[in-house]
Amino acid sequence: MATVINGKEIAANIRSEIAKETEDLKKEKGIIPGLAVVLVGEDPASKVYVGMKEKACIESGFHSKEHKLSAETSEEELIALIKSLNADDKIHGILVQLPLPDHINETRVLETVSPSKDVDGFHPYNVGCLLVGKPSFQPCTPYGIIKMLEQIGIEIEGKEAVVVGRSNIVGKPIALMLLQKNATVTVCHSRTKNLKEKVKSADIVIAAVGKPEMIKGDWIKPGAVVIDVGVNRVGDKKLVGDVEFEAASKVASAITPVPGGVGPMTITMLLYNTLYSAKQKAGIC
After folding, report:
1. Are the beta carbons of 252 and 224 closer than 8 angstroms?
2. Is 120 considered catalytic here?
3. Which 8-state DSSP code applies to residue 119?
4. pTM as predicted
5. Containing domain of residue 228, as a range?
6. Is 53 a catalytic residue?
7. Domain identity same for 109 and 150
8. pLDDT tens column, 215-267
9. Is the residue at 23 inside a domain?
10. Could you say which of 117, 118, 120, 228 is catalytic?
């Protein structure tokens, strides 16, 4: 049976280090990391996520500033707010919660965020830095996956890694990060032929396709490490990942559960990036 990777525990350990560094930064430089979160509209999942971020900021000793705007907010009003946050010295990170209402151009809004405060790692400048191997802010979910693998002592160098999913948020950036760690990386997607055979060749499987239990247990190479990014609601309450957990856990050496695996790492790395931004401002990194 596979070792079930405890994302909550790993995230808690990293957050403890973040809180300590935050206290040190405050004492030595008088700087408190500041995160601004902008929420437009009433999307229920977004509201829950924003609340979790607020709680995490408070626990880590951060300055947190929420901007909750109505769904009728214009694109120009939102962009004006972001520009004001760009100029606010107390704010080191800006996060615009997605999705945005249909009348707002998501790309234009994200590109308005200053690259130096883009703690989500979505600005084209930071994406380009990641591509050329000189990352500043790395997208939080894939960055959390790398940290998780490091924390549990998984050797990435020389391994065959298969990423299922090619989104800008997870699939593409995690492929780049694994490549920079000297893995041999294959990116699969909806038009990949012989997907089962591709997955079965992998020492490390990253499932980020957004389809419930699409990756079956008999697709997993014995001893592989399986990181399941998917969160899919089945029926009224049950959450499942992109991997058939029970069957895969009998074959893999280590696997993340859903929930409690990758999820806790995402907000943790958001805090990590915000602290890094504050430390940059203080001239200590």
Report:
1. yes
2. yes
3. T
4. 0.94
5. 140-263
6. yes
7. no
8. 999 999 999 999 999 988 887 768 899 999 999 999 999 999 999 999 999 99
9. no
10. 120
